[in-house]
Amino acid sequence: MTILVTYASRGGATAGVAQAIAKVLIEQGLQVTLLPMQQVHDLSNYQAVVAGSAIHKNNWLPEALTFVKQHQSALQTKPFAAFLTCLALAMTKQPEKTRTDVAQWLQPVRNLVQPCSEGLFAGVLDLSKISLGYRMLFRGAMLVRRWREGDYRNWPAIEAWAAALPSQLI
Ligand SMILES: Cc1cc2nc3c(=O)[nH]c(=O)nc-3n(C[C@H](O)[C@H](O)[C@H](O)COP(=O)(O)O)c2cc1C
User: What range(s) does the Flavodoxin-like domain occupy (predicted)?
Assistant: First the structure.
C-alpha cells in the first residue's frame, strides 16, 4: 500500500516541503506517491494521504480546499495529515500566538475531514514568482506586515514532523 503526498503550490515552496516529507517517509521504508493535487483523481489506491497547501489570504489555496471537498468521503475513511506553508510564521515576534492564529487557517479543512496530524511551516517569499499585476499590490501588503523576501523553510522542523507521521498514518 502506498501513501499519497499531495500539494497545492503557486511558487514551488510548498512543493519543496511536500518533496521533503515524501523523502523522509521513503527513508522510513514506506511506498510514497508525490503528486500536485490537480493530478490526483482517485484515492482508492492509497492507504493514507498527506496533503498541504500554500496559504493565500489566511486560507489554503482554493484548489486545495476543492481537493478535500471532492475527496471528502474517501479521506474520511483513511488517515489524513494536513500541512500549510505561510509567511506569518516566518516574520512573527510572537511565535506562540502566531502559531495559534495560523492553526485556525486549517479550520475549513477540519470542517471537511479531521486531520490526524497538522504541520504548520514557514514558507518562501519570492516576488519573481508573483504575477506582475499582483506584485505591486503585494509590495504594499509587505510594507504593512513587514514581510521580506526569503526562504524561511525550517527543514529540521519539516523533517521532524514527517518522521512522526508513520505511527499516525499506518
Ligand atoms: C498572493 C499571496 C497571498 C499570500 N497570503 C498570505 C497570508 O495571508 N498569510 C501568510 O502568512 N502568508 C501568505 N502568503 C505567503 C505564502 O503562503 C508563502 O509565500 C508560501 O510559502 C508560498 O508557497 P508556494 O511557493 O508553494 O506557493 C501569500 C503569498 C501570496 C503570493
Answer: 3-170
Each domain of the chain, given as residue ranges in start order, spans 2-169
Per-residue confidence band for 133, with pLDDT thresholds at 50, 70 and 90? confident
Asked if the model's pLDDT at residue 96 lies above 90, the reply is: yes
Within 6 Å (CB) of ligand 1, which residues are found? 9-15, 54-58, 85-88, 123-125, 130
Question: So what's the ipTM on this one?
Answer: 0.99
Q: Give the pLDDT confidence of 45-77 residue by residue, as tens digits.
A: 999 999 999 999 999 999 999 999 999 999 999
Query: CA-CA distance, 63 to 42, in Å (whole number)?
Result: 16
User: In the CATH scheme, what is the code of domain 2-169?
Assistant: 3.40.50.360
